[in-house]
Amino acid sequence: MELSRRDALAALSALGTTAMAGCAARAPQEGVDESVVETYVAIAAVVYPTAVSGVPSFVRSFLPARLDRSTHGPAMRETVTELQTVSREWYDEEVPALDESARDQLLREVGVDAADEDPEGTLAERVRFYVVNELLLALYSSPTGGDLVGIENPQGHPGGTDTYQRGPSK
Amino acid sequence: MSDDRQPVADADLCVVGAGPAGALVAARLAEAGQEVVVLDAGPRFDADDRLARQERAIRPAYDRPDVWEGDPKRDAHAASGEWFYPLNHARVKGVGGSTLHWQGMVMRLHEADFRSASERGVGVDWPLDYADLRPHYAEAEREIGVAGGMDNPYAPPREEPFPMAPFEPSYSDSLFAEACAELGIDMHSVPNARNSEPYDDRSECVGYGTCQPVCPSGAKYDATVHIERAEAAGATVIDRAPVQHLAHDADAIEAAVYATPDGERHRQPAEQFVLACGGVETPRLLLLSKSAQYPDGLANSSGLVGRYFMDHLFAGTGGVLDEPTRQNHVGFLTSESHQFYDEADAEVGPFKLEFFNYAGPSPVEMALSGEDWGDDLLGRLREDYGNHVAVGALVEQLPREDSYVGLDRDQTDDHGNPVPDVHWNVGDRALRTIERANEIQERILEQLGAEITWQAGPDSTGPAYHHMGTTRMGTDPDESVVDPRLQTHDLDNCWIVSSSVFPTGGAMNPTLTIGALALRAAEHLDDAL
Question: Region (Disordered): which ranges (chain A) (predicted)?
Fold first, then answer.
């Protein structure tokens, strides 16, 4: 299933960040944020199911608005920077340069798989909060992410009041 | 809105609490030309932050009180009763009050609820009956904006359709309908305080699915609607202004003494005072206002301030089917059954059945916990989502003297005041009623062919977060705190609008009755002013 611009706008809604009228999803900023966005795209390739396509453009569409948030954005950058440091120390490469299995391994070695999300916790808990769950919330609250599971109007998506009335065959 | 939080000169009316009761009274009296000031302990929330609050509601890092900025020090409390009471999951402090996080179900009490002692042989009769409140119910439905249908054969008589058409039944309702038809159980629509169409300059429901605890679209009514209307008519609203005590003489309140974030204390005098801070903080404020004249607390010559604390109890049964049930598209209910409600007697209380549209896990929330991601996570979501069903029930608890709100003098809040102690006991009749509701729920699910996987029964029930009974209404000053006009027996200018005045609770969600009583009291207040 292809993630669309509509999915990205839905993700902005569920992530508590509405797009401004007329300037929906902005291009990522140059420099530091490009590196951060690349890392999110690389992690998304690991934590998203193989059934979805269009992941890079989806992530690039919703992420800039999140990075713009006054306290959330800096914490996202800081968490990614720490993860990059670990990646360089353990794998001699930054996250985007690792192959998918190494990225998956890195996350598990940091302890992200077993961590509960916590915005003020350990690195594992913060990676879970600011990176992995950020990506998963964006995907599974979008129409395409919902469709993967069998729900056209997942929680967080303002998909109207028709779908709850429909049977499974629509 | 007052930014400097200074008292208002020449106030006619001071309302303590900016929830639905206080907001309705404030709007009515401000529109009638009175000088109104509203004090609330909590903040005024920015409507633009609602999507961010929705994210908090979904993400596992946040607990329910975090969504609306609960403050553990400000909101400290005790729970010394036989049953633990999770007070800070049950309320929101701030402009809008607990309607900010409520479910938004708005039913009228049944006629027999007003005559519990006479008709059911337990509890007490209200000092007014359904006919007295009936026009105010209709008025409250218009003010709040209720979407409902005329298809409930068990509802009390009504004079006109609801302001909006009901929400259509859900797909899972249709599954229940077949089973209930086989069992002779009638299903019907649910009166919802959410817009099924644009109403009162607010959007129709757009299906965010997080109604409880936050509606980002504003389609669900909350009391900021009437606070804004009160302000438009000239009322002043002062937030983060917890009232510390009520200064008084022998016959009347002189001023509400409130604190502000800068550490200052102010006196807000007024001609009349309305206490509208719910079933816990209202009795607490009266008890905190004790004096040499009133050593047991204000308006407490009966000794009943804080007594008879009640809540509704939840009974539920859930399970899974071997087919899709289409849950969690929306966060509200579209079908109930009130068929068994008026079978209540001394042994078994009234209860209503609720057919869930959000049984089982939400895939979004499920995705944010667990030790998997990628294809493994998707597999788990597909496995766990989609075939759940559940039937809930609300059950009446009788008023009991050993169920009360008192003060815990061993703990203090952020201003050094003793914290409220919710000493909650429910009684055997409520537990029997839960068993009865569970029996019917099991029959429905078995008829449906469901495998039952959980049950909230007498040993695992919990409160519905409806605080009632702690300043009960009556005609006898020895047996009640307020009279049928909601004026305290003891003080000339003190009124209480809240579910705290309910003599009994019935088993219907209380907010519509709170609204009807508030509008009725507003008429008396207007006369008094």
Answer: 149-170
Q: Which of residues 17-46 of A touch B (CB under 8 A)?
A: 17-18, 46
Residue B63 belongs to a domain: yes
Q: Is A120 on the interface with B (CB under 8 A)?
A: no
User: Domain with B389 in it: what CATH number?
Assistant: 3.50.50.60
Chain B contact present for A68, CB below 8 A = no
Is residue B4 assigned to a domain?
no
Whether A155 sits inside 8 A of B58 (CB atoms) is: yes
The DSSP call for residue A129 is: I
Contact check, Cβ <8 Å, B207/A152: no
Taking all residues of chain B, what is their mean pLDDT, rounded to a whole number? 97
Of A48, A114, A117, the CB nearest to B374: A48
| Domain spans in chain A, listed from the N-terminal domain onward | 5-162
pLDDT-derived band at A4 (thresholds 50, 70, 90) equals: confident
The beta-carbon neighbor of A117 closest among B216, B362, B368 is B368
User: In whole angstroms, what is the distance from residue A148 CA to residue B3 CA?
Assistant: 49
Tens of pLDDT, residue by residue over A135-153, are 999 999 999 999 999 999 9
> How many CB atoms are closer than 10 A to CB B194?
30
Q: What is the pLDDT of residues B308-367, one digit of tens each?
A: 999 999 999 999 999 999 999 999 999 999 999 999 999 999 999 999 999 999 999 999
Containing domain of residue B507, as a range?
13-150+157-528
Residue range B376-404: mean pLDDT, rounded: 97
Contact A137 B364 (CB under 8 A): yes
Provide the number of structural domains found in chain B.
1
Cα–Cα distance, B495 to B518 (Å, whole number): 10
3-state SS track over B20-65: HHHHHHHHHHHHCCCCEEEECCCCCCCHHHHHHHHHHHHCCCCCHH
**How close B167 comes to chain A (CA, Å)?**
9
Q: Does A74 touch chain B (CB under 8 A)?
A: no
Closest Cα of chain A to B182: distance in Å?
21
How confident is residue A25, by pLDDT bands cut at 50, 70 and 90? Answer: very low
Contact B456, B314 (CB under 8 A): yes
**Interface size between A and B, measured as CB pairs under 8 A:** 162
**In this predicted structure, what is the pLDDT of residue A28?**
47
Mutate to test the interface with A, among B55, B172, B373 (most CBs of A within 10 A): B373
Give, in order, the Cα–Cα distances in Å from A96 to each of A92, A102, B460. Answer: 12, 10, 49
Beta bridge partners of B335: B355
Query: Which of B167, B206, B327, B364 to mutate to test binding with chain A, by most A CBs within 10 Å of its CB?
Result: B364
Is any Cβ of chain B less than 8 angstroms from the Cβ of A140? yes
Name every chain B residue with its beta carbon within 8 A of the beta carbon of A150: 324, 382, 385-386
Residue whose entry in the numeric block shows the structure tokens 């009390």:
B156
Quick check: is B8 in a domain?
no
State the Cα–Cα distance between residues B522 and B501, nearest whole angstrom. Answer: 15
Tell whether B6 is covered by a domain: no
Q: Which residues pair with B473 in a beta bridge?
A: B482
Check residue A23 and give its pLDDT.
Answer: 36
